[in-house]
Amino acid sequence: MPQTKNKKTKKDFKSHLKSGSSFVKYTGIASQMLAVILGLTFLGVYIDKYFELAFPVFTFILSILSIIIAMYWIIKQVLNSDK
Questions:
Q1: Distance between CA 81 and CA 83 in Å, rounded?
Q2: What's the pTM value of the predicted model, to 2 decimals?
Q3: Tens digits of per-residue pLDDT, 35-69?
Q4: Which residues of 26-65 are buried (b: 16+ CB within 10 A; e: fewer)?
């Protein structure tokens, strides 16, 4: 008697691979976002220390700019992945 319940098809395997690859893709996007935000924020801290500023102007500006850039990249990558 053939077992049909436990048999996995190619279609099930391909859908499983797609779900795993989307996990990897979105983890990569999150890593890129973290790298951009941390990189520009630490650059701002370095510039503020270099110029010995009382108020961390460059840290503030570059951290806000890094969030804007990271959000732009995320939206662009997610919209392009739907195509």
A1: 5
A2: 0.71
A3: 999 999 999 999 999 999 999 999 999 999 999 99
A4: eeebeeebeebbeebbeebeebbeeeeeeeeebbeebbee
